[in-house]
TrEMBL record:
SUPFAM superfamilies: Clavaminate synthase-like. Gene3D superfamilies: q2cbj1_9rhob like domain. InterPro entries: Phytyl_CoA_dOase-like. Its cofactor is Fe(2+). GO terms for molecular function: dioxygenase activity. It comes from the Bacteria. Pfam families: PhyH (PF05721). Keywords: Dioxygenase, Oxidoreductase. This is Phytanoyl-CoA dioxygenase family protein.
């Protein structure tokens, strides 16, 4: 029997505010991440997750066998800016609910979209090495945050995201791309400095937000099902573009920031404001 979906109620949920307590904000700012339960309903995750999954398999171009792939390629299928491919995916990415949480955590008046990306770790997919996202971003301020949204329950065998608490405050490893080397060097450095690592499952409806300079990783997917995750990267609406420091930032400047001038706000159609108080 076909189930009728009430799109109006789903869209309403994506617009409604989620209350972020002062304690949650304090935890995020101290530790560089926070996990929040019951942010999205099973109905929203099912409906939009099905659309996102269809897009991932439609747009994916990584067809090499797992044995032929690099460590990075084994970590996940990565499909970016789904909002520009499909109107329903756009509804999810443009969620005011999710964007306002990002603004509240960072303590800013509004946030722009940097880009979205689906990260699907296939069965037998490998670990995701330790890294900090902002290595890749030519942005002047650390006021950036990513929401990581599992589209299913994510037990340990699926490889949930793990965070090194308070690592956003140290400058070790900020010059390292995601790689076998970053996994080795950062694992040793974080352990030697006694950073606590939060490596725990995600319930359905639970999401995490992590700052651009927070070091994080994920284990391999040893289950028989894909670990389906959607992410959205936000930046302070007052963020400005800085001179790229590496070839990856050069590429990001062109791809996600439309080569807007150094020192300017990224105000192209690629970077709409998703929440403004």
């Amino acid at each position: 029997m076909q189930v009728t979906v009430d799109r109006t109620s789903l869209l309403q949920e994506l617009e409604e505010e989620y209350t972020v307590s002062p304690e949650v904000v304090a935890f995020y700012r101290k530790n560089g991440y926070v996990k929040l339960k019951n942010v999205l309903s099973p109905e929203v995750l099912q409906y939009y997750g099905d659309v996102i999954t269809q897009l991932v398999f439609k747009l994916n171009t990584l067809t090499k066998s797992m044995e032929e792939r690099t460590t990075y390629e084994r970590a996940f299928l990565q499909i970016m800016n789904l909002w520009r491919q499909d109107e329903t995916a756009r509804e999810f990415v443009f969620s005011r609910r999710l964007a306002k949480i990002a603004a509240d955590l960072m303590g800013v008046e509004g946030v722009r979209l940097y880009h979205d990306q689906a990260l699907y770790k296939e069965p037998s997919g490998g670990f995701t090495p330790w890294h900090a996202d902002q290595f890749y971003w030519p942005l002047s301020s650390p006021k950036t945050v990513t929401v990581w949204i599992p589209l299913q329950d994510t037990p340990m065998e699926m490889g949930p995201l793990a965070f090194a608490e308070q690592s956003q405050n140290v400058e070790i490893g900020r010059n390292m791309e995601i790689s076998d080397e970053s996994e080795k060097v950062l694992a040793e450095e974080l352990a030697s400095r006694h950073f606590n690592v939060n490596d725990t499952p995600f319930e359905l409806g639970e999401v995490s937000y992590h700052a651009g300079w927070t070091f994080h990783r994920a284990g391999p997917n040893t289950s028989d099902a894909p670990r389906k995750v959607m992410t959205v990267i936000y930046m302070d609406k007052e963020q400005t573009i800085t001179q790229p420091q590496n070839t990856y930032q050069e590429a990001d400047w062109a791809t996600w920031l439309a080569n807007y001038p150094i020192g300017s706000k990224p105000e192209s159609a690629l970077n709409p404001i998703l929440f403004d108080s």
